[in-house]
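Milestone 3.1: sequence recovery, worked example.
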């Protein structure tokens, strides 16, 4: 890596850039960390986006999950079942889910405003 930071080491990426949105696989392919934003997705749609991203990149990517969702348990189950390795949480306390995600070897980052 030309740019070596704690972020590039932690996420195993080339550049210390984290990009959410519809270009998650393109971001990952370019050496950043692409994030799938699950804020408005039902679990089935999230699974579809995870599978699509896996098909489009072999580089690391993650999923951003707002914890205030009513179906949060199903979204957590979806990322675990899909073998996602990085989860960003937001909009709520990460205490309830962090241990479970870590038990499945998922790196957890909580976003705080």
């Amino acid at each position: 890596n030309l740019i070596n930071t704690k972020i590039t080491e932690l996420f195993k990426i080339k550049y210390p850039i984290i990009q959410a949105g519809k270009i998650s696989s393109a971001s990952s392919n370019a050496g950043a960390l692409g994030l799938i934003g699950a804020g408005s997705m039902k679990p089935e749609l999230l699974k579809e986006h995870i599978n699509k991203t896996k098909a489009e990149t072999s580089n690391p990517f993650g999923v951003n999950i707002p914890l205030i969702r009513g179906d949060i348990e199903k979204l957590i189950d979806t990322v675990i079942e899909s073998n996602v390795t990085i989860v960003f949480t937001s909009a709520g306390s990460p205490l309830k889910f962090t241990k479970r995600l870590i038990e499945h070897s998922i790196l957890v980052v909580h976003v705080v405003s």
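Strands lie at 18-20, 33-37, 61-66, 86-90, 107-110. The longest strand covers residues 61-66.
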